[in-house]
Design brief:
With 180 residues, this protein is mostly helical. It has a single domain, classed as Tetratricopeptide repeat domain (Serine Threonine Protein Phosphatase 5, Tetratricopeptide repeat). It is built from nine helices and no strands. The relative contact order is 0.11.
Length: 180
């Protein structure tokens, strides 16, 4: 009986240890970069800071999750939607607390015109990381594609409050009765 218990405990241990570790803490560094973006004097400065945000967001929790993310994004770049979705579904299943898995899966849905499918993933990414300005911008674009212009404009304003240099700023419309 003890041998059976020891064997079972030995089998259960590695399965638990194979789970995704906690995602890297990015909030403090992200907040610093966002402050820099808000104070950036020009587009070139902002561009470098935006790259720093992506470096933070694309840092997966471990080697396995990094591989899933990289493979999903590579498949997305080559429009291999089936593989992109499979790898990003695996990533979200493995690391359900990693915001970028949801953001990239939403982007895959968006690129295919599956806007309703993108929204829950964008909401989840923002629940995990409220300062994920790319997910905010993606949500704004998705809402606009769904014909929800007022909601999209509100979310775009939230995104631009964090990063006034977003390329999507060209889509901002004047609120009724106000001049920008």
């Amino acid at each position: 009986m003890w041998k059976t218990l020891i064997v079972l405990c030995g089998l259960a241990g590695p399965a638990f240890a194979d789970g995704c570790p906690v995602a890297p803490e990015v909030e403090a560094a992200q907040a610093d970069v966002l402050l820099g973006l808000q104070a950036a004097p020009d587009y070139m400065t902002a561009r470098g800071l935006s790259a720093q945000l992506w470096d933070l967001w694309l840092q997966a929790p471990d080697e396995a999750s990094q591989r899933m993310l990289d493979e999903g994004m590579a498949a997305m770049r080559s429009a291999d939607w089936v593989r992109a979705e499979a790898r990003l579904n695996a990533l979200v299943g493995y690391c359900p607390f990693y915001a970028e898995g949801y953001n990239q899966r939403a982007f895959t849905a968006y690129l295919q015109g599956h806007y309703l499918a993108a929204l829950p993933d964008l909401d989840e990414a923002l629940k995990i990381n409220p300062g994920h300005v790319a997910a905010l911008a993606g949500k704004a674009l998705t809402l606009m594609k769904l014909g929800r212009e007022a909601d999209g404009q509100r979310v775009l304003r939230d995104a631009l409050a964090l990063n006034p240099w977003l390329p999507e700023r060209g889509l901002l419309k004047e609120p009724e009765g106000e001049k920008l």
